[in-house]
């Protein structure tokens, strides 16, 4: 594939020189000749100096994604080299006996911007952020078959209106098989030695977030004999980890009946009796108020809400909503209890997130001591030149009162 030259603004050129992998639409890009998603571009500054090779995505806010700082030919050999480098990195820290669900390629973090590839057992799941990789999918799948020989390869769409669709996406098919044999409707995979059921077709997500693998391992080491409350429990991955580690009581709370039943199935595939624990379908704040009225107490409370969600009765956003959750959840903890707060909101940085936790603590009249502050695991790398790549914030806090 031949490349076409495109001039970018001085501001964009400066960002490229600083290592950022995106070109955002502006007055310069609006003057570009008409092109198609996936076109190979040679980016130059206004003086004509070559800067980088990029993939075009003219209908998106990110109109070009940089794949190399050199003049590059995007062919099978180039893709194989990038993929092999990403695979080799994972071999150093993923225990294949305990975990077969993890990220193989993390888009910008592995030099393939806009493309993620996750492994789920013997299957692979591709997600395309934008349309620039769509014309190159045959090359990508050919390279994956050669390097890994998966049973099947799926693609899962990432619709633009993800936020609006979040509450109604549970049973809609967003995934499609593009190569190989189909996976079971509920595919069993392993993480940290535990079993989980995932769906490569239904829903915006698969039912398991691999970026929380290390966070669940952290919980496994601290929850034995404790009472654990899991807010926004989704399909119960944290709840399974807590129960398997010997928690005295696990209470899972989610607004979705579908996900709650999925959580019970996850307990079952780990030979954990769900009847020994609690499953509550309801809004988080309303449930917290109800638990407080009953006098329920917990040793560990975890809240891992979506960055934005709308249900029939409420709307949640990270900025503004987190403080109220922190205040309400803190009421169920004794002194010395752990409040674990997590957010995957890319546009909220660590400093702003900690301000939300501070507001919640002040509202509750308590102090939160941060004893651990982590992000995504090793299979979700990001360039130091790409702050957007560090999105996950996981804060473990000890509650104290004067």
Question: Helix and strand layout, with pairings?
Answer:
Elements: E1 3-7, H1 10-17, E2 22-24, E3 40-44, E4 50-56, E5 62-68, H2 76-91, E6 101-106, E7 115-120, E8 123-128, H3 137-148, E9 152-156, H4 162-165, E10 175-180, E11 187-191, E12 194-198, H5 213-220, E13 227-231, H6 237-244, E14 249-254, H7 257-269, E15 278-281, H8 284-294, E16 298-303, E17 308-310, E18 315-317, H9 318-330, E19 333-343, H10 350-364, E20 367-374, E21 393-400
Parallel strand pairs: 1-3, 8-9, 13-14, 13-16, 14-15, 16-19
Antiparallel strand pairs: 2-5, 3-4, 4-5, 6-7, 7-8, 9-10, 11-12, 17-18, 19-21, 20-21
Helix pairs in contact: 2-3, 5-6, 8-9, 9-10
Structural account:
The protein is of the alpha/beta class and 402 residues long. It folds into 3 domains: 3-68, Archaeosine Trna-guanine Transglycosylase, Chain: A, domain 4, CATH 2.30.130.10; 76-187, RNA methyltransferase domain (HRMD) like (Transcription Regulator spoIIAA, 2-Layer Sandwich), CATH 3.30.750; 209-400, Rossmann fold. It is built from 10 helices and 21 strands. It has helices at 10-17, 76-91, 137-148, 162-165, 213-220, 237-244, 257-269, 284-294, 318-330, 350-364, and strands spanning 3-7, 22-24, 40-44, 50-56, 62-68, 101-106, 115-120, 123-128, 152-156, 175-180, 187-191, 194-198, 227-231, 249-254, 278-281, 298-303, 308-310, 315-317, 333-343, 367-374, 393-400. A 7-stranded mixed sheet has the order 15-14-13-16-19-21-20, with helices on both faces. A 5-stranded mixed sheet has the order 1-3-4-5-2, covered by helices on one side. A 5-stranded mixed sheet has the order 6-7-8-9-10. Helix 2 packs across helix 3 (137-148), helix 8 (284-294) packs parallel to helix 9 (318-330) and helix 9 runs parallel beside helix 10. The longest helix is centred in the N-terminal third of the chain and has 16 residues, at 76-91. The chain is globular. The model is unreliable at 308-316 (pLDDT under 50).
